[in-house]
Write a structure and sequence with these properties.
- By secondary structure, the chain is of the alpha+beta class.
- The protein has two domains: 1-63, no CATH class; 64-106, no CATH class.
- Helix content is 28%, strand content 13%.
- It has three helices and four strands; from the N terminus they run H-E-H-E-E-E-H.
- A two-stranded parallel sheet has the order 1-2.
- The longest helix has 12 residues, at 89-100.
- It is globular.
């Protein structure tokens, strides 16, 4: 799973975003047919890298599911995060990816 690529850790990558992007995509290096690589299709850095590189497995975009910043929709299931202590879009995206995971919701 790859939720986002932001410039907040560049100090570890010689202050080069490209180095950081390549490092983040290393998570997919050992994937094989049948494995799933989920990514956030709303993240511009992720999408740009995917467009310019090929992978052994087909990436699966996970951009649908966040309804209003507190309600998640996965298949026909709804998850209300409004009563949780997890606030913010980034935490809602974390929850969406955790719920979606490698399983297939109907």
């Amino acid at each position: 799973m790859l939720l986002n690529i932001t410039a907040d850790h560049l100090d570890r990558y010689e202050y080069q975003l490209e180095n950081y992007v390549r490092s983040k995509f290393r998570i997919a290096m050992n994937q094989q047919a049948g494995d799933i690589f989920l990514y956030n299709s709303d993240d511009a850095n992720t999408v740009a890298f995917l467009k310019s590189n090929s992978f052994a497995v087909e990436p699966e975009a996970l951009h649908q599911g966040l309804i209003d910043g507190k309600t998640l929709s996965v298949g026909h299931h709804r998850f209300d995060l409004g009563s949780t202590q997890s606030k913010g879009i980034h935490n809602a995206m974390n929850a969406l990816f955790a719920i979606k995971g490698p399983s297939k919701w109907g």
